[in-house]
Design a protein that fits this description.
The chain is of the alpha+beta class. It has one domain: FomD barrel-like fold. Helix content is 17%, strand content 41%. It has two helices and eleven strands. Strands 1-2-3-6-7-8-10 form a seven-stranded mixed beta barrel. Strand 9 and strand 10 form a beta hairpin. The longest helix has 20 residues. The chain is globular and about 45 Å long.
Length: 179
């Protein structure tokens, strides 16, 4: 689908991120600061203490800073996870739809395959079981499965070559628990 972006419209200081399943039903949502926005990339920062609504695992409170990179032309998003003291904990890449920005809401579909890089280890492909379940549940075609697997290979390469930024320095977010 086409993504329309008005370059002249100011970005909201905060926005709501909504992660959906392949069928469009939301399963997780949270508030984040906007750190950067240009034609192809939106970078957000989630902060410790922020409330996350989660239909799968139950609601929870963020323990770490999470800087998320959402590309408008790539089927993945990358998270830099920092402990409150600024130490990099993890690089995490979600395979999903291209994100859609609508006002102060950013939405993307999660296609279940993920990549994690912790410490000096190589990046690892995660959630093959969730992907297999999604193939059945949402009827992923052979072509779509291949598309997701290609995106996962891109995610592995991206995680391996990624140079993380420094830990974000931002104030706590106001508590907003609306989906």
């Amino acid at each position: 689908g086409a993504i329309s972006m008005q370059e002249e419209s100011p970005m909201p200081r905060t926005l709501t991120v909504v992660a959906t399943k392949a069928d469009g039903a939301w399963y997780r949502t949270w508030q984040a600061y906007v750190e950067r926005h240009d034609a192809n990339l939106l970078v957000t920062v989630g902060v410790p203490g922020s409330h996350t609504l989660d239909r799968e695992r139950g609601d929870w409170t963020m323990k770490n800073y999470i800087r998320a990179h959402y590309w408008f032309d790539r089927p993945l998003n990358l998270l830099e996870v920092f402990a409150p003291d600024g130490t990099l904990v993890q690089i995490y890449v979600n395979v999903g739809s291209l994100p859609v920005l609508d006002g102060d809401r950013l939405t993307f579909a999660d296609y279940e395959l993920d990549v994690s890089l912790e410490g000096d280890g190589p990046p690892r492909l995660l959630d093959e079981d969730e992907f297999a379940a999604a193939i059945e549940r949402y009827g992923y075609s052979t072509e779509f499965q291949a598309y997701c697997r290609a995106a996962a290979q891109e995610a592995l390469a991206l995680a391996a070559s990624w140079t993380p930024g420094t830990a974000p320095v931002v104030p706590p977010l106001p508590d907003s628990r609306q989906p």
